[in-house]
């Protein structure tokens, strides 16, 4: 299993070396079928490795080789009937579209007022308030071919591209009503239905506008994050404070931060102090004291104090910009659960058109009334809503990703969030994950009487042992290694030069130090001390720290000369996190490379019943693979290089923010900060998101199933059907927005 994961990783790496990724803002999509069409077109093109289109986010992510340019991709999308622009232009385009859309909507509803007045009069039993038929025809024609032109344009483009979308349903339905009403008017009949075509277009347009507003302002967390950055900042130039645009701030500039301000760029405090809230990055709403030498992050709110800080990173180089970029990329991906909706959307519109034709034929045969049969068929066309189906998954994913980011969890993509939502077993590494990962040397024992002598060493003492150990450990990044290098630094020890350094992940290091020879540092069995447990009965090892400590041995030329006991403390949040996970029905397991007694001690204090020690990285990965083979859905949380194979084997994996680059690269989500509280948040938010998706899909399927039947038997006229269709999309978005209100806390 581990070899397979390694092979897949190598293939992905090789593929990435020859591909690049382009992101576009897509306009003109009216339902999930449009997104599916663009994906289908792009994925068929030579040079395109993969293409994913997010209907809710209105974005496309295309991975392609060097033979394909962004202009070529935009041309392919345009040929499919849609418009694509670089994602960087999206905000400008959206502002323009929203402003123009609002005015079009206002004018459309003003033109519909005469029909509203007439319909209210008819409800009161009077036809006198209905405009004359010629005026109805004029107003309806303006609406049909002016404001409704967008539906004709979208329908034509979709059909030309080889699919039928929501625009086809609206264009067909309203055109049929307008054409029939025009025909009977010309035949001298007074019973026309121009108000139906007008109100259908008005309600559908209102629904699409509200949908656009919701997706842009409420659903999308990117806007909220970007709003944290102030537009202007006070900077010191020529000895005086000047207010300038944040965009003009450069690295090295000195800025002023005051109570109530937001930090404009990433920097370091050079004068003064203040209290800052970094919840937008860490997910922890606690105020931190910042003074000279401390780092401040863009978007942090200054709750009290005043200080000067020097800019270190600006614009796209800030930590907040990195969060926005990662979130933007993640929201553009597609969860596996969305595939069902995509399959339905691909055949939805043709199926609805067929049902509408059958509805017309059956009702015309049964009732003998052409106009009533037509109205029922149009109601079927209008009430059917592929939009709700298409929005069900991506809307919840966008909201869930944003909520996770606010809680200090950065999911890499939608499948990662989905996998985390199914987790029933949470595996933790011990050192640096459940514990602080800052062990201290609590005891040392030198084998001076026999082993040291056999190594032909004279004057061997603790100082020399520490110097040798630290000299080798400086080439490692494990928390235990840092304990030795820190201790050597505190004693001002001059470290030796080491050659031929070899690292065995999960075991230790070896290298050559002249004039001593081959040096090994690591777990006892690696450093030539395979039977250390036998020593624990000796008086020299009777103290508790030897039984409940991490052990590191030092050997010279195959002979163990020293062994260290290192103790670490459990993070204060670990016990509460484990308790909350167990309350949610999640089994908690510890897998560690440390001594079994140490692992058992930590497990006992945290109330964890299953804890295994002395495991190599391969052992951890194989254990997780076996759990999953038994039907468990496993998430691995760790922070080190030796956790990476286990993370790769797990269905979901979380990297503690202070961990190694390898762990963060392998993990499906990165936890900001050192607390594992975010691991609890990650699975909880993922579960809530999956639940929300299932609710949305259920509602969308039930709405369409019931709505089509009700319309087919004549219980809904086209106007009510259009209003219901608009409401269905808004209801799905509103349900997804409930995720934005989630506020998780351990207590």
UniProtKB/TrEMBL annotation:
InterPro entries: ATPase_P-typ_cyto_dom_N, ATPase_P-typ_P_site, ATPase_P-typ_TM_dom_sf, ATPase_P-typ_transduc_dom_A_sf, ATPase_P-type_domA, HAD-like_sf, HAD_sf, Heavy-metal-associated_CS. The keyword Amino-acid biosynthesis does not apply. Its main location: membrane. One of its GO terms (molecular function) is ATP binding. The chain crosses the membrane at residues 106-127, 133-152, 164-185, 191-210, 344-367, 373-397, 697-714, 720-737. GO terms for biological process: copper ion homeostasis. Pfam families: E1-E2_ATPase (PF00122), HMA (PF00403), Hydrolase (PF00702). Its EC number is 3.6.3.-. It comes from the Bacteria. It is found in: Cell membrane; Endomembrane system. CDD domains: HMA. Keywords: ATP-binding, Cell membrane, Hydrolase, Membrane, Metal-binding, Nucleotide-binding, Translocase, Transmembrane, Transmembrane helix. GO terms for cellular component: endomembrane system; plasma membrane. It is a multi-pass membrane protein. Residues 20-85 form the HMA domain. Belongs to the cation transport ATPase (P-type) (TC 3.A.3) family. Type IB subfamily. This is Copper-exporting P-type ATPase A. It comes from Moraxella caviae.
């Amino acid at each position: 299993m581990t070899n397979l994961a390694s092979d897949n990783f190598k293939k992905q790496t090789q593929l990435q070396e020859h591909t690049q990724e382009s992101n576009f803002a897509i306009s003109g999509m009216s339902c999930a079928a449009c997104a599916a069409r663009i994906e289908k077109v792009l994925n068929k093109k030579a040079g395109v490795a993969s293409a994913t289109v997010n209907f809710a986010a209105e974005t496309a992510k295309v991975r392609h080789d060097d033979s394909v340019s962004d202009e070529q991709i935009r041309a392919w999308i345009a040929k499919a009937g849609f418009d694509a622009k670089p994602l960087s232009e999206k905000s400008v385009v959206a502002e323009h579209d929203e402003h123009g859309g609002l005015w079009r909507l206002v004018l459309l509803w003003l033109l519909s007022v005469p029909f509203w007045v007439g319909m209210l009069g008819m409800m009161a039993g009077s036809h006198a308030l209905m405009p004359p038929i010629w005026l109805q025809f004029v107003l309806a024609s303006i609406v049909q071919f002016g404001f409704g032109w967008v539906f004709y344009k979208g329908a034509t483009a979709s059909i030309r591209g080889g699919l039928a979308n929501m625009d086809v349903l609206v264009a067909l339905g309203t055109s049929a009503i307008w054409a029939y009403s025009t025909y009977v008017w010309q035949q001298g009949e007074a019973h026309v239905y121009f108000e139906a075509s007008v109100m259908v277009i008005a309600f559908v347009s209102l629904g699409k506008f509200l949908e656009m507003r919701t997706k842009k302002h409420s659903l999308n967390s990117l806007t909220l994050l970007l709003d944290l950055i102030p537009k202007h900042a006070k900077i010191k130039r020529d000895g005086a404070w000047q207010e300038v645009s944040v965009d003009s701030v450069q690295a090295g500039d000195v800025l002023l931060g005051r109570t109530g301000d937001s930090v404009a760029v990433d920097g370091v405090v050079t004068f003064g102090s203040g209290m800052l809230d970094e919840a937008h990055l860490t997910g922890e709403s606690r105020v931190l004291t910042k003074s000279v030498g401390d780092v401040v992050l863009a978007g942090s709110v200054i709750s009290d104090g005043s200080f000067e800080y020097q800019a270190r990173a600006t614009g796209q180089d800030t930590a907040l910009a990195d969060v926005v970029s990662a979130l933007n990329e993640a929201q553009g991906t597609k969860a596996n659960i969305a595939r069902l909706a995509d399959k339905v959307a691909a055949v939805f519109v043709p199926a609805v058109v067929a049902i509408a034709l059958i509805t017309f034929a059956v009702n015309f045969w049964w009732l003998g009334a052409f106009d009533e049969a037509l109205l029922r068929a149009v109601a079927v066309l209008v009430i059917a809503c592929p939009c709700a189906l298409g929005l069900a998954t991506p809307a919840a994913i966008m909201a869930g990703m944003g909520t996770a980011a606010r809680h200090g969890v950065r999911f890499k993509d939608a499948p990662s969030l989905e996998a985390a939502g199914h987790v029933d077993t949470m595996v933790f590494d011990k050192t640096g994950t459940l514990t602080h990962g800052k062990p201290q040397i609590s005891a040392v024992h030198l084998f001076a009487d026999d082993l040291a002598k056999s190594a032909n060493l004279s004057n061997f003492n603790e100082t020399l042992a520490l110097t040798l150990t630290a000299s080798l450990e400086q080439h490692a990044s494990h928390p235990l290694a840092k304990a030795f290098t820190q201790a050597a630094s505190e004693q001002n020890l001059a470290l030796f030069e080491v050659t031929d350094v070899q690292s065995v992940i999960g075991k230790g290091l070896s290298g050559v130090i002249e004039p001593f020879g081959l040096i090994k540092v690591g777990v006892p069995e690696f450093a030539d001390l395979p039977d250390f447990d036998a020593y624990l009965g000796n008086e020299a090892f009777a103290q508790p720290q030897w039984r409940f400590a991490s052990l590191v041995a030092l050997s010279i030329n195959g002979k163990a000369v020293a062994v260290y006991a290192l103790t670490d403390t459990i993070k204060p949040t670990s016990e509460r996190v484990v308790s909350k996970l167990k309350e949610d029905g999640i089994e908690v397991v510890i897998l560690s490379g440390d001594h079994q007694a140490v692992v058992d001690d930590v497990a006992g204090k945290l109330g964890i019943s299953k804890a295994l020690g002395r495991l190599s990285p391969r052992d951890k990965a194989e254990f997780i693979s076996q759990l999953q083979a038994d039907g468990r859905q496993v998430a691995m949380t760790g922070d080190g290089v030796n956790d990476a194979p286990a993370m790769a084997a797990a269905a979901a994996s979380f990297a503690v923010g202070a961990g190694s680059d390898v762990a963060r690269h392998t993990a499906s989500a990165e936890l900001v900060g050192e607390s594992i509280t975010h691991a609890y948040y990650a699975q909880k938010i993922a579960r809530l998101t999956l639940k929300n998706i299932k609710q949305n899909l259920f509602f969308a399927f039930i709405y369409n199933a019931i709505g089509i039947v009700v319309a087919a038997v004549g219980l809904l006229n086209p106007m009510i059907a259009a209003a219901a269709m608009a409401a269905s999309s808004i209801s799905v978005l509103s349900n997804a927005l409930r995720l934005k209100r989630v506020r998780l806390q351990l207590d």
